[in-house]
Structures are given as C-alpha cells and as structure tokens.
Amino acid sequence: QVQLVESGGGLVQPGGSLRLSCAASQSIFSSGTMGWNRQAPGNGRELIAKITSSGRITYADSMKGRFTISRDNAGNTVYLQMNSLKPEDTTVYYCRLDRFGAVYWGQGTLVTVSE
C-alpha cells in the first residue's frame, strides 16, 4: 500500500555531494523504521543507515563519516546526505521502510561519481 519514491540521484564529480530524499506516498504517522541501502555488486543490498520512529540512528560501520541520515518532523520522508563522494560510491541507492511487519522498497535512484 505504501509507495516510496526516491529522488536526488545523478552524476557528481569525485569529492562532491548529493542529498537523496525518499518520500512515502501516504502519511505513515512517523511509524516504522526507514533507511537507505545500496546495491553491492554480486552481494545484494548493503545497509547504509536506518532511523527509527523515535529517532534512533544506526550506521553500518563502513559507512560512518561521510553519510548522514535524517528524517522530517512528520516522519514520512527520509534523507541521506552524502559528502566527499568517491567513484566506488557509484551504484543504485534504495529507500526502505519496515512497518507493522511489512517491508517496502523504493525503486532506487542511481548515483554516478565520475569526472
């Protein structure tokens, strides 16, 4: 029932920044855990970060430092601020919502880091 729509991906030079957004198609009343994953070649989707309805944030150890997750006051939109981007960050980024025992995925947004 809930649809997630990502935006903000695109082409950026190494060292640049992007801010990804993911908005739920309907109000989820700040419920559930929202997060960001990215496609890992030959290894499925790897966690970047997640944030609960109460604001607790978890980062994958390998992702700490350059990426920052946040959530709007209504709890329906999650953001990923990405700084100091590297070519190896090039991949598809996915939004995820875990809510009431169901898992929802966005369609993904492509981030390309290249000169």
Walkthrough of the structure:
The chain has 115 residues and is mostly beta strands. The chain contains no helices and eleven strands. The chain has strands at 4-7, 10-12, 18-24, 33-39, 45-51, 57-59, 67-71, 77-82, 91-99, 102-105, 109-113. The strands form two sheets. Strands 2, 4, 5, 6, 9, 10 and 11 form a seven-stranded mixed β-sheet that branches. It has a four-stranded antiparallel β-sheet with strand order 1-3-8-7, with no helix packed on it. The N and C termini lie far apart (40 Å).
List the helices and strands and how they pair.
Layout: E1 4-7, E2 10-12, E3 18-24, E4 33-39, E5 45-51, E6 57-59, E7 67-71, E8 77-82, E9 91-99, E10 102-105, E11 109-113
Parallel strand pairs: 2-11
Antiparallel strand pairs: 1-3, 3-8, 4-5, 4-9, 5-6, 7-8, 9-10, 9-11
Structural class: mainly beta
Instruction: Show unreliable segments.
Output: none
Spell the H/E element sequence. Answer: EEEEEEEEEEE
What is the residue-averaged pLDDT?
94
N- to C-terminal separation?
40 Å
Total DSSP helices: 0
| Proportion of helical residues | under 10%
Please outline the major beta sheet: 7 strands, mixed
Rough shape?
Answer: globular
Strand runs, count: 11
Q: Strand percentage, roughly? A: over 45%
The radius of gyration over CA amounts to: 13 Å
